[in-house]
Amino acid sequence: MRVELTEVLWFEEHAVTLNELADLCSLPMPMLEELVGAGAILPLQADRAPPRYGAQALQAARAARRLQQDFDLDSSALVLALGLLDRIDELERQVRALRAKLPASIRS
User: What is the pLDDT of residues 52-71, one digit of tens each?
Assistant: First the structure.
């Protein structure tokens, strides 16, 4: 599925319910609820009822669906994998920030 720029912009400006998130990512509702309960997928505002989910939640849910389909992972393994993917993204951002501080003659 190809995501168009207009879809990304729309999703950045809107939030969806858990049911809508399940439809968008094609993940079974029980598994999505387990991922939310474990903190692998977070709502935009924790104190709001009903919770609403944004672009980061959609990205995590779609990654979980791909991992589950490709490797037949259960929800516990998905929580671990999503946490590791988040950590990798964080470390890559830090590396980019540090490289940006280097003089141009040293950058590779």
Answer: 998 889 999 999 999 999 99
In the beta sheet, which residues pair with residue 53?
Answer: 16
In whole angstroms, how far apart are CA 34 and each of 4, 28, 44, 101, 103? 29, 10, 17, 41, 46
**81 contacts 45 by C-beta, under 8 angstroms:** no
Token digits for 97? 């920030």
Q: Give 10-residue mean pLDDT values along the chain (108 residues).
A: 55 81 93 95 85 90 95 94 95 94 79
Q: CA of 25: how far to CAs of 71, 91, 96, in Å?
A: 17, 26, 29
C-alpha 43: how far from chain center? 11
* pTM score, whole prediction: 0.78
Cβ(68)–Cβ(31) below 8 Å? yes
